[in-house]
Amino acid sequence: MANDPSEKDPVSKPPASGAEEKPVAQKPAEPSQTASSADAPKSADVPAPKPPATTTPAAPKAAAPPPKEAPPKPLPLDNELVQKLKARFGDAIGETTLDRKQAIVTIGAEQLREISRYCRDEEKFDMLVDLTAVDWPKREKRFDVILILYSFAKNERVRLKAHAGETEPVPSVCEIWPAANWLERECYDMFGIVFEGHPGLKRILMPDEWQGYPLRKDYDILKQDTDWVRENLGIESAQ
Amino acid sequence: MTGPRIPELSNVSTTVLGADEIILNMGPQHPSTHGVLRVKLKLDGERVVDSECIIGYLHRGVEKIAEHRSYQQFAPYVDRMDYVAAVSNGLGYCEAAEKLLGTEAPIRARVVRTILTELQRIASHLLWLGTHALDIGALTPVFYCFREREEILKIFEKYCGARLTTHAFRIGGLQYETYDGFEQDVKRFCDDFARRIDEYETLLTENRIWVGRTKGVGILSAADAIALGVTGPVLRASGVKWDLRKAMPYAAYDQYKFEIPTRETGDTYDRYVVRMEEMRQSRLICLQAIENIPAGPIMARIGKVLKPPPGEVYHSIEAPKGELGYYIVSDGTTQPYRVRVRPPSFINLQAFDKMARGSLVADVVAIIGTIDIVLGEVDR
Asked: Are A152 and A165 in contact (CB under 8 A)?
């Protein structure tokens, strides 16, 4: 799966973008091609009466759907929140993007706790909706730690994205949002990311004695199966 | 139930036991834990001093499976998470995938989705009500609840052939048109249900035993609820008027009028009242929706092979248990690079410790019931 060749990217580009940009370079052609082959012939016979909602759904129907379907791709974001964050934390704020109308702010992992506290206290992002991670094994810093925050006052979400290397601890945000407790444990369980300052970091879904981190991309499920069969049944797996 | 041979007892978070304290293991086979939840309770007499939930018995690696399936192939798997509200799971996943593709289901599909999802909410709440009352000692409601739930499952069965893990929706819209008589079936159920729900209330709402067992039990303040990320009826019972169907409307919810019931205290009784009222509101949404299901296609034109452009999306819906979110990362291929499920039960269960501390052992049963967890979703 980890097929993206991000060899050169990690250096030149600050984090998340690396992952997102290179596919853009090679692949956007593909979706539009498939879209055009699949949609163009059909769109000819689409009768007008179909009343999909106003904005997005118009795209597939329109005469030239392929170019319109391509747009869901990250755009630079520069709103008030980003400006405030940049003014306050400077270099710790990396790339900021708007992907499918959703705000993503890339931040330095060292400053994660300070930025989180600022977001909660000053920007009223009082709920941590989710905390998770994504593994990009070919990148220098392989993990994206993702925090999804929600503000009741503004009714909006923002996604903080911090990059972490395999052995780098990430500051825990448990003291800011107690909700992070189990979420960070799950992240540790699945990816092996260590959260510094967590009150009791141990596995949560997998058994305590489990070896390996299942959601890492190099955790091969087929290998798990063949190894188990070899070890426990003494034969070669037929898989 | 307890015993020194269970290894984890040695590293219980609460290491030191006082002279009067004991550790009691509840579950994983205890009937009131609604599945395979194990709760380790530290007790001082009848009082809970500390607690720890041990989960993962039902872990199936859904998120890992997703990385090895195409977008459409993964859709049936999501039904197996919250298996008493499979339709809601499917709605969340399909809408997230549609957002990732930059498309949207046609209006007819969205209205039908809304109706089915609201029926599913009623069914999920009915199951909760029946079992929760059963846990506390009210034996009667469960029979009534299952009777009405059966009607909903019959509608699902007629619609798509399945009752529980329905896989009712597809990315881009619906697989099936509604059957002849769908509106009448829903209408008949809704007309009947108003009376039924009053019937349940006569059994419980002013019942002295029920009130005694639920009032003031497992109190969760609004501030705590928000800090712990709790969503859904549990949050609303604590006095936060927040519902994703209103805050960030999806499907066709922006077209219908409904209220968000809230209460102030945040105890078990309040959560009961909120869920009862939610069923009434769901019924009203269904009635409004079947009045006018727009004609038109039920499937967007998205092609057979889904290759969302690289990028990521987070989309969440108000599932019966709370905010059910899907965070999907695409690398431009036919298989998702990463699918993260934000499970409401998992995050709500984290508030258990807060609610249970200081209460009696007998109330622990009520508190587990009132959070309304499904272990299939907690463990995924």
From this structure: no
Residue range of the domain that includes B142: 62-379
If one counts the domains in chain A, the total is 1
* Co-location of B83 and B49 in the same domain: no
Cβ of B325 within 8 Å of Cβ of A129? The answer is: yes
Number of H helices and E strands in chain B, helices first, is: 15, 8
- Which among A6, A100, A209 is the top mutation candidate for probing chain B, defined by the most B β-carbons within 10 Å of its own β-carbon? A100
- Tell me: the pLDDT tens digits for A110-138? 888 888 888 888 888 989 999 999 999 88
Do B159 and B31 share a structural domain? no
Q: What is the pLDDT of residues B39-52, one digit of tens each?
A: 888 888 888 888 88
Which residues have a Cβ under 8 Å from the Cβ of B205 and sit 6 or more positions away?
Answer: B273, B276
Report the pLDDT averaged over residues B363-374.
Answer: 89
- The answer on B154 and B40 residing in a single domain is no
Rounded Cα distance between A49 and A102, Å, is: 31
- By residue range, what is the domain housing residue A206? 75-211
Comparing CB atoms, the residue among A26, A71, A204 nearest residue B56 is A204
**What DSSP state is assigned to residue B96?**
H
Contact, B227 vs A179, CB < 8 A? Answer: yes
Residue B230: closest C-alpha in chain A: A179
ipTM over 0.95: no
User: CATH number for the domain including A154?
Assistant: 3.30.460.80
- Domain for residue A188, yes or no? yes
DSSP-assigned beta bridge partners for residue B124: none
Q: Who's near B361: CB < 8 A, 6+ residues apart?
A: B24, B41, B43, B46, B48
